[in-house]
Amino acid sequence: MGHLHRGGVLAAVLGLVLATTASAPAVAGSGPDRYRNPVSAGFADTFADPVVVRGDDGLWYAYGTSDPLREGEKQAHRVPTARSADLVDWTYVGDAFAPDQRPSWAAPGAAFWAPDVRRIGDHWVMYVTVTDTTVSADTFDTAIGAATAPTPTGPWTFADAPVVAPRPGGGGGYLWTIDPSQFTDVDGRNYLYFGSYYGGISVTELTADGLRTVGTPSLVAVDNKFEGGYVLRHDGWYYLFASTANCCAGPATGYSVQVGRARGPRGPFVDRDGLRLDASRAGGTPVLTQNGNRWIGTGHNGFLTDLSGQDWIAYHAIDRADPYLDEPFGINERPMLLDRLDWIDGWPTVNAGAGPSEEPRPAPVTTARLDERFDSPALTRWRAGDDTWQVADGRLTGTGALTSRTDLDGDVRVEADLRLTGADAAGLRFGRVDVRVEAGRLTAREADEGSASVPLPAGFDPADRHNLAVEVRDRQLVAELSPARLGDQLAVATLRLTRPVAGPLTLLADGGTGEFDNVSVAPLYRPARHAVAPPGVGPLLSDWSDEFDDGLDPAWRWVRQNPDATVSGGALRWPVELTDLVGTGNTAGVLLRDAPSGDYVAETKVTLDLGEETVRNYQQAGLVAYVDDDRFARLSQVAIWNTRQVEYGYELPFAGRPVYGGNIVGTPATTTWLRLAHHVDPATGEHEFRAASSRDGVHWTWGGVWTFPADTTPRIGLVAHGGANPPVTAVFDYLRFHR
Fold it and tell me: Which residues carry out catalysis (predicted)?
């Protein structure tokens, strides 16, 4: 999203989830080339809500939200655009829209947020949030607009009507119609995902040109938890990536990415634990969250695949030491980062669960063993035989067969952009295998052996440019045809081969003229098979723990004692207070005890009946790592409007005032187990606290890391506050420490 500020306790509304600080395995085939985040540093200090596409010229294009690009620039760009040959070194190439360019229905001064760029048919379409329209005097009556262009750099022309118009909210104002993301399904239907915390994420079908809606939108992710939806299809599943928590709380930003999957584009999307993303107790499996290094607020993702077949996630993050442009509490500085997206046991995770990278890492594969862009008319790397092929305007056209002088062997990824301008069939041959687009089908054949054939969508136009990608791993062939290489397959064919792939690559066009571009052959990436391990939980430290069996242990100390909190029946019973710790009020009671030195895990089990669906802001109970009233990390199950979440909130002093944000760590039950894993960074001496939650005390969701300075001594405690209507009592079974 853009840079909304959700003040007061509402800033606590939203969340995160993490992965561990351990380093992930290196990627095979990445060679010596390395990169370091943020990849946008060469042209921008901030580049929020990024998406990346590969253009017809074989180069990569990135688009960001309307903000100033550089410190002190102060003037917002109107969808800044950058270009790269290698996904690492980027160059600013201009804004998508001129200073006075806006659709007729946009109010003067409207900003353009969170662009999404796709190929639909024979042109490119950019979907963009328009923050202010002429529908009303409200300055945030947002809508989704669309603009079309012949190339990724424009010129862009706005459609004459919004794709999704402003939507009045039942509670006043307008629903947050922001953060668009388009998806094309295997049946050829186009969809648009949009929405945010006020209204949730919805999906609507689009017309064939992608410029108008069809039918009625349906909710796929609950309000007050998710925004920034992005859907892709992988191994037959549809994955909804969504960001959660506050995007823009400066040094307390806890934005992160979670995911659910479904068997269709309309859901229902469920997480790894089977919890729906559109429920009051909304699920969400962690994909990306902060890990204690430089980067916090890791969210609003795009997606891409390099030439080796490795998937990557583009996203923005905040340097916790440099969170703003220009001045404190100004524009949040959110550069673009890029990291490996691994698929482990059917679920995506960044760097095998290690989270955002700070140190140099193997770079994406953007050049290949055979890497033909047809920039020269000479076909010195090819053999045409008696067939006629020619290069013009950076594209190859011809009929028959054109064979490369480069042989394939081993596990490979082969791809090409192709159009059937007059051919009956066109495709690729390598070794004994043909993969072709023919007669409305995508077909893979092994000579004298088996074949696989799947239909292309009704309305498929072979004269439009499409990408054909074929991967072979351990004799298993997977061929995908897509409009934009963005997890938006129109067809997927799989075939088990009888022998390894060997021999040259041949381009095929039968019965007429075919057109090819961006032909590549690269060694196939080596997938990560195992996620990095979560923090270990060792023996119980009984001298530091309290089972609440015999009154309150003398080691406890109160900050603002609550006389209604009592110990009986082996539990601490604490009526939830109408108090809070956030901001300057500092009225809440906090029950604390000293923590052991070194690394440890603190755990509690808390029962709190918050019901579902109803608004009970912001009743909560849980663990806290506490230095003082203006520096703490609070992990609690909490009622946030209609939702129930496990929020890992964080407050610290910054520029003379307390700043609060949060991230989300799992889904609470009425009884929820909570953990804080403490680690001292050996290089900096910082205290790192990583959070986890569980609905059964056995299966844990590990989330983000908040840090405390080396010269502080955080204590561990319990809290129960945020509201007293209706009255409810938190029941803590214990506080345990483990080494």
Answer: 49 (proton acceptor), 227 (proton donor)
HEC profile of 201-264: EEEEEECCCCCCEEEEEEEEECCCCEEEEEEEEECCEEEEEEEECCCCCHHHCCCEEEEEEECC
Work out whether the CA dihedral 102, 105, 111, 113 comes out positive or negative.
Answer: negative
Rounded Cα distance between 547 and 732, Å, is: 9
Q: Which amino acid is at 19?
A: A
Q: What percent of the chain has pLDDT over 70?
A: 95
Architecture of the 8-362 domain? 5 Propeller (2.115)
pLDDT digits (tens, 9 = 90+) for 340-363: 999 999 999 999 999 999 999 999
Rounded Cα distance between 673 and 694, Å, is 5
Q: Which of 437, 468, 520 is nearest to 29 (CA)?
A: 520
Query: pLDDT by residue (tens digit) across 466-479?
Result: 999 999 999 999 99
Q: How many CB atoms lie within 10 A of CB 346?
A: 11
pLDDT digits (tens, 9 = 90+) for 254-305: 999 999 999 999 999 999 999 999 999 999 999 999 999 999 999 999 999 9
Instruction: Count CB atoms within 10 A of the CB of residue 556.
Output: 16
Architecture of domain 542-738: Sandwich (2.60)
Sequence-ordered list of residues with C-beta below 8 angstroms from that of 563, at least 6 positions apart, any chain: none
For residue 259, which phi and psi values (nearest 5 degrees)? Answer: -145, 150
160: number of Cβ within 10 Å: 9
Q: pLDDT tens digits for 582-615?
A: 999 899 999 999 999 999 999 999 999 999 999 9
d(CA 96, CA 77): 9
Active site residue 686: no
Element (H, E) at 632: strand 631-640
pTM of this structure: 0.95
100 catalytic residue (yes or no): no
Tokens of residue 250, six digits: 């400066």
DSSP strand pairing (336-344 vs 347-350): antiparallel
Residues 582 and 650: their CA atoms lie apart, in Å, by: 9
List the strands of the sheet with 729-738, edge to edge. Answer: 566-568, 571-575, 729-738, 600-607, 671-680, 687-694, 700-708
Strands 643-654 and 631-640: antiparallel
Residue 207 in tokens: 């017309």
Type and span of the H or E element at 396: strand 395-409
Pick the catalytic residue: 67, 132, 227, 577? 227
Q: Do domains 370-523 and 542-738 have the same CATH topology?
A: yes
* Domain boundaries, given as residue ranges, for the chain: 8-362, 370-523, 542-738
d(C-alpha 515, C-alpha 371), whole Å: 16
Give the active site residue among 49, 446, 577, 647.
49
Could you give the CA distance from residue 310 to residue 358 in angstroms, rounded to a whole number?
Answer: 20
CATH 3.10.20.30 describes domain 370-523: no
Spatial separation of the C-alpha atoms in residues 611 and 727, rounded to whole Å: 12
d(C-alpha 104, C-alpha 250), whole Å: 34
Q: How many CA atoms lie within 13 A of 20 on its CB side?
A: 15
